């Protein structure tokens, strides 16, 4: 039913796609350089720069008005001066020294007043900056809230809920235009997917019916004991061809259905699914002198049990059919690693060049062969496995095994 050998446990998988709807949320999402954070920094930064410039201008104007460093506009000629601020002993000082002491005292008081103005202004600026950043953050969130609705709707659509719409109300601005355009696109996508589902259903009926009739007619003729040997041989050949066509149709329909995200999910244990797949292939494995091994630990995921069983069955069938003639083995393991359920199928078999790995997942492609012409399947097995894994938000990775065979690793989110 598949494309080529299968199976065990590769190491570091390749990087994930740029955006994955099932990607875990980072521990501190508010530290991400989002548009809201950037707008907040822009608003607050502009206010802070404007405040610093205003404070500098006020300080310079105040310093100029107070004439710091200049002499007093009057002089002491005769008399006594007393001060509680300055340390003056006017009765003991000549007039010139007394004037210099007065100038120094007044300039110190001017500088003290400027320093006090600067410190108080900086505190006021700091408080206003905090208020400005908080206000800018709130306003940025209000302005960007339509984008949040668009993002949440896009994530819901990524889960195959094409019935969701943004339906943004408010002023007729650029964001509303974007939301309306997105809604129109979703409407067209929903119509296209609905038409595809109808086509798959109709094609399933139209293709299966004649093949089932052909199989019934051939089986009836083959059950006739008086039929000539040549006719029986021809009937068996036609029956095998018809069976192959049925497998091809079933594979194509399954591939078409599994290309979308799975809407109806339930708890599925990969260990149980792998065990059922082994039971179904056990007789074929014995006929090919292939033994099974490996430890299957519980690994429960949320998904479609039928499709997940198809993943395990295709991989195990490939591992058995593309194996060595004698003393071959297939190792099937399941476990939970780093918050993901992992199914690994590895086998002995022919040496697979690394550059051929990607071709194995293409429909109707086999190792060094293309299209039909093999009794090991119709060339859709690994294509179906990849499609079903993607529909569940998972990935499949393959690598050649040292000494021959393949290691197939399927990871699915828990």
Key features?
five-stranded mixed beta sheet; two-stranded antiparallel sheet; 7 helices; 414 residues; single chain; 9 strands; Heat Shock Protein 90; alpha+beta
Brief account:
By secondary structure, the chain is of the alpha+beta class. It folds into three domains: 29-158, no CATH class; 176-258; 266-413, Heat Shock Protein 90 (2-Layer Sandwich).
Explain what this protein looks like in three dimensions:
With 414 residues, this protein is α+β, with helices and mostly antiparallel strands. It has three domains: 29-158, no CATH class; 176-258; 266-413, Histidine kinase-like ATPase, C-terminal domain (Heat Shock Protein 90, 2-Layer Sandwich), CATH 3.30.565.10. It is built from seven helices and nine strands, in the order H-H-H-H-E-H-E-E-H-E-E-E-E-H-E-E. The strands form three sheets. The protein has a five-stranded mixed β-sheet, with helices on one face. Strands 1-3 form a two-stranded antiparallel sheet. The protein has a two-stranded antiparallel ribbon with strand order 6-7. The model is unreliable at 1-23 and 369-375 (pLDDT under 50).
């Amino acid at each position: 039913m598949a494309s080529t050998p299968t199976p065990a446990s590769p190491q570091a998988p390749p990087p994930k796609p740029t955006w994955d709807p099932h990607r875990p949320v980072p521990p501190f999402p508010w530290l991400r350089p989002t548009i809201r954070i950037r707008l907040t920094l822009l608003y607050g930064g502009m206010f802070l720069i404007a405040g610093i410039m205003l404070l500098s201008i006020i300080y310079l104007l105040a310093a100029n008005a107070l004439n710091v460093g200049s002499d007093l506009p009057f002089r002491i000629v005769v008399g006594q001066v007393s001060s509680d601020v300055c340390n003056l002993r006017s009765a003991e000082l000549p007039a010139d020294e007394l004037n210099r002491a007065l100038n120094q005292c007044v300039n110190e008081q001017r500088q003290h007043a400027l320093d006090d103005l600067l410190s108080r202004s900086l505190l006021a600026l700091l408080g206003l900056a905090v208020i400005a950043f908080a206000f800018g953050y709130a306003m940025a969130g209000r302005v960007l809230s339509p984008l949040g609705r668009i993002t949440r709707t896009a994530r819901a659509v990524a889960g195959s809920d094409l019935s969701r719409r943004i339906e943004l109300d408010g002023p007729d601005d650029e964001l509303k235009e974007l939301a309306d355009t997105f809604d129109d696109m979703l409407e067209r996508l929903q119509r296209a997917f609905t038409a595809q589902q109808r086509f798959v259903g109709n094609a399933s009926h139209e293709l299966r019916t004649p093949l089932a009739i052909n199989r019934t007619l051939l089986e009836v003729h083959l059950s006739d004991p008086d039929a000539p040997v040549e006719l029986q041989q021809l009937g068996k050949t036609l029956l095998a061809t018809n069976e192959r066509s049925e497998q091809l149709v079933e594979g194509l329909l399954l591939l078409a259905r599994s290309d979308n995200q799975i809407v109806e999910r339930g708890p599925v244990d990969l260990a149980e699914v792998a065990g059922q797949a082994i039971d179904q292939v056990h007789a074929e494995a014995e006929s090919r002198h292939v033994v099974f091994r490996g430890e299957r630990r519980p690994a429960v995921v949320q998904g479609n049990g039928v499709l997940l069983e198809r993943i395990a069955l295709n991989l195990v069938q490939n591992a058995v059919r593309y194996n060595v003639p004698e003393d071959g083995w297939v190792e099937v393991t399941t476990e939970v690693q780093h918050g993901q359920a992992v199914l690994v199928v590895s086998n002995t078999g022919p040496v697979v060049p690394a550059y051929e790995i990607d071709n194995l997942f293409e429909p109707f492609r086999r190792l060094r062969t293309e299209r039909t012409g093999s009794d090991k399947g119709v060339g859709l097995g690994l294509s179906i496995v990849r499609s079903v894994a993607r529909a569940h938000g998972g990935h499949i990775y393959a690598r050649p095994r040292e000494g021959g065979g393949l290691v197939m690793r399927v990871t699915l989110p828990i």
